[in-house]
Amino acid sequence: IKISEFTLIGAFCLPNMSVCFVFFKSTIELFVNRLDSVESVLPYEYTVFDFCSENTMKRPSENLGQVLFGERIEPSNGYTAVTNVAFLFILPSIMNSLVIVLFLSGMVAMIMLRTLHKDIARYNQMDSVEDAQEEFGWKLVHGDVFRPPRKGMLLSVFLGSGTQIFIMTFVTLFFACLGFLSPANRGALMTCAVVLWVLLGTPAGYVAARLYKSFGGEKWKTNVLLTAFLCPGVVFADFFVMNLILWGEGSSAAMPFGTLVAILALWFCISVPLTFIGAYFGFKKTGIEHPVRTNQIPRQIPEQSFYTKPFPGIIMGGILPFGCIFIQLFFILNSIWSHQMYYMFGFLFLVFIILVITCSEATILLCYFHLCAEDYHWQWRSFLTSGFTAVYFLVYAIHYFFSKLQITGLASTILYFGYTMIMALIFFLFTGTIGFFACFWFVTKIYSVVKVD
């Protein structure tokens, strides 16, 4: 809005002097970004309707995050909109959730430490082989616990992509907590995340290659190609289909062709070469050394009870991690779909740390129970147990769509669930990677402190 009267924009006085300098500006420019509706997820440019006329003033440039969210910054021509901003006091709810999660995590850690301490002490006090043969539990599978998993290629690729997402999320939230990614700088969070993902191809390639080599794999070319293209390709294909729908609807959220080419260039020219570099160093290093040898003949797994079978354990494993994020998840979904600004990055970073701890401890606990039941297939199970949190996230997103939103129209519905599937896939890789590496550390630790002849 142009204000005809002079507006004070700053003032200062020289010390020990009676002279003050006052600065005035005759006009204040008001810019607009997009038009939204509670019945649609399709944003439109401010000048798409007849009552918002074009303005000859220069349009400021948008960053990548603003483009992805459909913002087209334009100067207004005297039209304004009044928005009611409601500040929600959610600190008590968040703190109660964190206290409960911390208490449960402490209980799990205490039980695990006490039980493992007794088991290790009992095993190390055995005097004869006959005593060891009479024992049962996790020590009996020491010759099979590091046996390469089935479909180790796919697992290593998932873990490489999950590592890339984990580091990207941690660094982005850390910068946001320090104030570098202020909510006032619209789109900065998304821009930072995309740039970091592109630059973190090296850790993805290294982790995937190193684990695949430790699994005994030899098809290193296939491994590095899948790491560079599988998960990013699925996300890009989903995003491209959503972008076609946005183009067809004439929405401002449709990414321009030039920006789409720029993102592809970042992927193919930066991320893919960095992934190949990481894979080169990963395959160059020797495989991960395990504390115990693997037997040539696999041990037969006894009949399992209902609670130690794979599927029930995987379902139970995602409940506790989801319980520590669902409150923040509500506000994150509000910021994405209900056009509200999210500003609680400090709380979000704290919940991120609690999520990592909870995923790790819940997966380790279930892994211990399965090893005690002489089931040594822990690699995929640990990944899926923690990754099942993404399924609860997907169920909650469906509940949120029907209970909180007023979206109508087929295009908006397809867009909502299309973008939700992208978020669920990213969250699946993220949490699954946490669970695997937590169990990998746990299994390596307990089998390195027992006496195995």
TrEMBL record:
One Pfam family hit: EMP70
Topological category with respect to the lipid bilayer: Multi-pass membrane protein
InterPro entries: EMP70
Biological processes annotated in GO: protein localization to membrane
Keyword Transmembrane: yes
Residues that span the membrane, as ranges: 85-113, 157-181, 187-212, 224-248, 260-283, 314-337, 343-371, 383-402, 414-443
Stretch forming the signal peptide: none
GO CC, any one term: cytoplasm
Subcellular location: Membrane
Transmembrane helix in keyword set: yes
Keywords: Membrane, Signal, Transmembrane, Transmembrane helix
Main location: membrane
Similarity comment: Belongs to the nonaspanin (TM9SF) (TC 9.A.2) family.
Protein name stated in the entry: Transmembrane 9 superfamily member
Organism, as annotated: Dicentrarchus labrax
